[in-house]
Amino acid sequence: MIDPAALRARHADSPFIRACRGEPHDIVPVWFMRQAGRALPEYRSIREGHTFEEVVHTPELAAEVTLQPVRRYGTDAAILFSDIVTPVASLGIDVRIKPGVGPVVDPPIRHREDLARLRHLEPELDVPYVLDTVSILAEELDVPLIGFAGAPFTVASYLVEGGPSKSYSHTKALMYADELTWHRLLDQLASITIASLKAQVERGASAVQLFDSWAGALNPLDYERHVLPHSQRVFEELADLGVPRIHFGVATGELLGLMAAAGADVVGIDWRVPLDVGRARIPEGVGFQGNLEPALALGPFDQVAERTRDVLRRAGGAPDHIFNLGHGVLPETDPSVLERVVDLVHTEGEVRAPADAPTRDVDGRGDGDVEVSA
Q: Which pTM does this prediction carry?
């Protein structure tokens, strides 16, 4: 088995890792959220004989699915194939991945006494298949592996709502009506997230991404009071691992400054915010990731190329920029379009020396009242 420290040293000079740290490198690194999935015919071929859960629980299959987009697209990083609810499901919470819907929890967690259904995660015992997948990938990948987990708020939203939601009414009702229970729930989930990510890094992940996918449902005041302390704890307890930490959420344009304050090295910007505007809301010294709109890949490539170049222009050659979509790859996407995007980014993307890159003047709150020098 490869020593994780030696593996991270091997990837330390990769464009992806150097961009996470804002260090000089030659090409703009690119990877895609949900790059391993339904857009790839080779993935669909595996799924014809296996359920989603079977793939996640079978290390050889999960590793193969993780490797597929790296082979196909030539991305500069791989992201572990798993799910954000996998750790809590391993604790006995009844979570099913319903096709076309997402994670469904029955019964949901909505009362103080329901917290007893959660316990501390012991990764080697509870999710050994995830860690074995990481170990396989550590041996086979030539690019860094990104481990990941769901942020406490987003996992809580699934547990409390019972599944995906548009209004998050049950989640907000618990948050407002029983604040003590809310914070206890998120504290337990933070502990689970920390244990999961630490174990992934110990097995060979070279970076981690915390998905707070649905934090955009909150206003800044509620995020700061009810969510930020728990996300901060996650990042603080991962700090001594020495791997880059990425923080991403959807529709979080008004939260970018606060998400940066949680302590990540890189903050993802979703497609709703122009990249340079989002970057201005993130303090100097914190990298940024994004943000081509995923649906653009469904249209003609000349339009995709134009908007890809626009993202690169707005990035300004910053050495701490990682090219990505503004959310995940859509299932209807033609893989050849993403292959061409990777080639375009690698060919035309500019990376300036850190001293020559544009600076940003921010107030750390993400309210947009800033100016960008570029």
A: 0.93
Nearest to 161 by CA among 146, 173, 149, 171: 171
Number of structural domains in the chain: 1
Closest CA to 313 of 281, 341, 349, 286: 349
- SS3 of residue 62 by DSSP: helix
Q: Give dist(CA 55, CA 43) in Å, integer.
A: 10
Residue 306 counted as domain residue = yes
Residue 283 maps to a domain: yes
Query: Would you state the structure tokens that stand for residue 276, as one six-digit string?
Result: 């340079």
User: Residue 350: which CATH number?
Assistant: 3.20.20.210
pLDDT in the model for residue 360: 67
Question: Dihedral (C-alpha) 259, 265, 271, 273: value to the nearest 10 degrees?
Answer: 60
- Strand ranges for the chain from DSSP E: 78-79, 95-98, 102-105, 145-150, 207-211, 245-248, 266-268, 287-289, 321-322, 360-361, 371-372
Task: Find the domain containing 269 and state its range.
Answer: 4-357
207-211 β-sheet, strand order: 78-79, 145-150, 207-211, 245-248, 266-268, 287-289, 321-322
Q: Is residue 374 part of a domain?
A: no
Q: What CA–CA distance (Å, rounded) separates 326 from 268? A: 8
Cis peptide before 291 (omega within 30 of 0): yes
Neighbours of 162 (CB within 10 A): 16
Gap between the Cα atoms of 185 and 187, Å rounded? 5
Q: pLDDT tens, 314-372?
A: 999 999 999 999 999 999 999 999 999 999 999 999 999 887 766 765 443 333 332 22
Q: How many residues are recorded in the chain?
A: 374
The structure tokens listed for 273 are 């915010």
Mean residue pLDDT across the chain: 93
Given phi > 0 = left and psi -120 to 50 = alpha, else beta, which region is 108?
Answer: beta
Structure tokens at 13: 């000079």
Q: Which residues are catalytic?
A: 34, 38, 47, 83, 158
Task: Flag whether pLDDT at 72 surpasses 70.
Answer: yes
Quick check: 110 and 160 in contact, CB under 8 A?
yes
